[in-house]
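B., you asked whether I could sanity-check this one before it goes into the benchmark set. Here's the sequence:
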Amino acid sequence: MSDVPTKLQPIFDQLDKNTDANIAKLATAISYKAVSADESLRQELFKKADYIQSLLENLNCTDIEQFALGDEKPGLPLPPVILARLGTSPTKKTVVVYAHMDVQPASIEDGWDTEPFELHHDKERGLLIGRGSTDDTGPLLAWLNMLEAHQQLGLELPVNLIFCFESMEESGSIGLEKFIQEQAQTSGYFYKYASQIDAVAISDNYWLGTTTPALTYGLRGCNYYQIKVDGPKADLHSGVFGGCIAEPMIDLVQLLSSLVSSQGEILIPGVMEMVAPVTEDEKEIYKSINYSVDEFNESSNSKTCLFDNKEEILMHRWRMPSLSVHGIENAFSGQGAKTVIPANSTGKFSIRTVPHIDSAKLDALVIEHVNKQFAKLNSPNKMVCELIHDGAYWYSDPRNASFTAASKATELVWGMKPDLTREGGSIPITLTFEQELKSSVVLIPCGRGNDGAHSINEKIDLENYVKGGKLLGSYLYYLAESDK
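And here's what the prediction gave me:
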């Protein structure tokens, strides 16, 4: 770590002293099975929101409120969005901090080495393992850990903070965009005490690799689709009906195979023609990034990469679209042999979007392609292809005041300049914040590229968890000192 400014050293020391207590908080937060995609676990989201609210209350935050967003469907309420603030000084800058409380599904049967909702501290390797440790419960708590250190030292923050914590990010942030739009009005929550929002800070992504910290100035968007094929009224026995009936699963598999090649090439006409061309200046950026094929293989825990050099890997991860097939509903997946013909089958896939793909035009191209392919099958079954949800891509200026402050903080805490990266994942609300609050958004990742978000054995390095609080706190100080 570089020489720490006098005003920050006590905060860094306090965070170190609080390490055990902060690990305990992470263990409690992870224990809630806050899986937004699982309707049977919906109450866990409410319980976790109550726990996070209790932490905010302990930090003397004000105007803490859980906002109801209505029902996802009849009888299934959406979990709340928490808004809270710390500080209302008219002479200080105001920063909105966004994070999400929900997590991806996880069970020991998926291949986890430990129970996913019981934090496992691997002291030998310095890892904190559990669902949500890096996405996004750990980084959320890193913000609060930093605030607690200030409180314990009797120090004021150099900026005003507004917290916005949601519970449906892993399911497309249902209801959040409209909520932000409403609260961004003159009479809304965000402008109750602030004439303007100076920055929005998000820590919901990761370093590119495992050795060099990063700041992220671009995200791919995500359009999510499903194809449903309906056939007979009920499941049938293949020994009686096989070869005599049009099987929905067979139709579906052929349709899915028409979308993308095994080499990752999108086969839907017109999609690639919308992509912004790669410039020579952009190519130079990839050359300077500290990354390797070996690091990519480590992060994927495999040697299945389609490319043999970092430049192509980075371009296809950041600024080229991709199409992924995610699953098939109503397909037999248990052990043993079951000779059933499913009466219907639904396939789900997504396309990661990039500049300059138009979302509405993409939807039209996808649906037109699937309809044409289904017509070629000459099947008596019925088929429908539809958009489930979408989120736009995002791209920012990595040299504005907020990114400059984050870069200084990164160099202070980690002793090296961060890579300026784009990312392949999506955070749907990023663009909404930028547009509605008329403010720049900065993505400051806490975790590393091999953390395994959305995968088994998700972890965050203890070092990253502790330094995460230091990084985010330093960012606020440097931002407060900036001209804008």
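One thing to flag: The mean pLDDT is 95. Otherwise nothing jumped out at me.
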